[in-house]
Amino acid sequence: MSPCYEQACVTIHFTWKQDWPAVSKLLPVIEKELAPFHARPHWGKLFTTSPAELKGIYKKMPDFIELSRKYDPQGKFRNEYLNKNIFGA
Questions:
Q1: 7-16, pLDDT tens digit by residue?
Q2: Can you say whether residue 17 is alpha, beta or left, with left for phi > 0 and alpha for psi between -120 and 50 degrees?
Q3: Would you kindly state where each structural domain of the chain is located, as residue ranges?
Q4: What is the pLDDT of residues 63-84, one digit of tens each?
Q5: By C-alpha distance, which of 13, 2, 88, 14 is closest to 51?
Q6: Residues in contact with 73: Cβ distance below 8 Å, sequence separation at least 6, in sequence order
Q7: Burial class of residue 1 (count of CB atoms within 10 Å of its CB; 0-12, 13-18, 19+)
Q8: Class of residue 42 by CB neighbours under 10 A (exposed 0-12, middle 13-18, buried 19+)
Q9: Cα–Cα distances in Å, from 39 out to 10, 42, 53, 67?
Q10: 38, 45 in Cβ contact below 8 A?
Q11: What pTM did the predictor assign?
């Protein structure tokens, strides 16, 4: 599930203020600018990439989902974020 899997990679970390309305407006702008580089968001950070898009850009997502379902069949270690972005759609 690494954004760096099978590709040259650089990571950029932004420290945000606790202001989701402002951050949520800026993220699509950043993501659009990074799109030509086939950027993958860190799936544990803030992003606006849809769950369907995530599944298309993370090659190992099906393996992760399979392992998660095998070792955590009741979803005890999941949360709303994971249910929406990884196990949903």
A1: 888 888 777 7
A2: beta
A3: 20-85
A4: 999 999 999 999 999 998 889 8
A5: 88
A6: none
A7: middle
A8: middle
A9: 9, 9, 12, 25
A10: no
A11: 0.72
Looking at residue 81, its pLDDT comes to 84
Cβ-contact 15, 68 below 8 angstroms: no
Identify whether the C-beta of residue 86 lies closer than 8 Å to the C-beta of residue 58.
no
What confidence score (pLDDT) does residue 17 get?
79
Which two three-digit tokens encode residue 5?
Answer: 């899997």
Are 82 and 64 within 8 A, CB to CB? no
